[in-house]
Amino acid sequence: MDVVKEELDVKLECEVGPRIMEVVNEEPEVKLQCEVSGKFFLGENEIIQDAVSVSAATKLFRCLECGKAFPFKKNLIRHAIVHSGVKEFKCEVCGKMFNHKGHLTQHLVHHSGVKNFKCDECSKLFSKKKHLTQHLLIHSRVKNFRCVECGKLFSLKGNLTKHLVIHSGVKNFKCDDCGKLFARKSELTQHLVNHTGVKNFKCDECGKLFAQKRYLTQHLLIHSGVKNFKCDECGKVFAQKDVLNQHLFIHSGVKNFKCDECGKLFAQKRGLIKHLLVHSGMKNFQCDECGKLFTQKDHLIQHLLIHSQVKTFKCDECGKQFTQKRILTKHLLIHSGVKNLKCDECGKLFARKDSLIQHMLIHSGVKNFKCDECGKLFTQKHGLTQHLLVHSGVKNLQCDECGKLFLRKSELTQHLVIHSGMKNFRCSKCGKLFARKKDVTKHLLIHSE
Description:
Layout: E1 2-6, E2 10-13, E3 20-23, E4 29-33, E5 40-41, H1 44-58, E6 61-62, E7 69-70, H2 73-84, E8 89-90, E9 97-98, H3 101-112, E10 117-118, E11 125-126, H4 129-140, E12 145-146, E13 153-154, H5 157-168, E14 173-174, E15 181-182, H6 185-196, E16 201-202, E17 209-210, H7 213-224, E18 229-230, E19 237-238, H8 241-252, E20 257-258, E21 265-266, H9 269-280, E22 285-286, E23 293-294, H10 297-308, E24 313-314, E25 321-322, H11 325-336, E26 341-342, E27 349-350, H12 353-364, E28 369-370, E29 377-378, H13 381-392, E30 397-398, E31 405-406, H14 409-420, E32 425-426, E33 433-434, H15 437-448
Antiparallel strand pairs: 1-4, 2-3, 4-5, 6-7, 8-9, 10-11, 12-13, 14-15, 16-17, 18-19, 20-21, 22-23, 24-25, 26-27, 28-29, 30-31, 32-33
């Protein structure tokens, strides 16, 4: 501190009368100058207070390890213990170690169960005021911390730090029950609830139970009808972002999950798990309308559309309507004219795999579908269904050209060829043309006589 002497002219007023007395050459008053701010003060206490306020604002003491600055040297010394790695203070309740005794004291508040700090927005309680202060940032909707990897924003720097562990690819937390690895301890803790079997969170809409509240919250989006997550590839919309992320694997073309039973590949693990039910033979989902059993619940739900008779999916080519979109998609293959599936037995081509599989039954010789009226056997169920129309005697299909009635649609389709005037079948004996193959066959009997 520099001592500065100033000569002052002091004027004193007489307490008895109005006369002014001028005193010259009085003992000069001493002023002290603060080295930090440069200000002058009369007393040493004042200059100390000023130095404290200035150093607190400028934070003169900086940590060489992390760059953090402190207003006082003692704060820097205390902070240095963090980088030393020395933790001498242990919590007797959970065993957690701390650098400073004060940190241990604050930590013990958690175990006390006392939460005196309440959020006015959501009524959530906190054991420490600083936790409440941090929590309030969430309600402010201010997110100043951005992840450089994925661009996700966070209200708290601590949340961003935890999030960055995901991008590191390091997963040090393992579930002892199933062996699944996690990047964060909090994720493992939440996961362990699934193994307890306890589901305390119930959906009021459908009654479905969940092990964790966050699962219920995500599930409620389904009932809201709001679908804000759209696939850029196919335009399909989803209520949940994680469902969209799983869906994107389909478009990637990558199928890393293989069925050991049949070799079928899947893009998602859950797709493989669902598929394995087919090989298990277990069918726990039954249709109340017809009693048909299914291995998967979503298959039952799709099947129920058939009984609803609601056909909202229409083919733009022929006008035929379907109860399910997937059936329409398969049907469109017929109009494409593309037939890439070939029967190894007879060489016949098919547009759809299910049509080829049904056709293969003909070559197998297996006929499991029997007519109760005449005992005739069929390889395919739809063959038996069409045959039953013969016994019914009902002819509901009429030709618009000549009015002739038919039992089956296939018969009407073949008949319409006659009216089309097209004759693509030629007799190898005499060259005569016919509209239908069966007509050629009958005609050849004449040449055989």
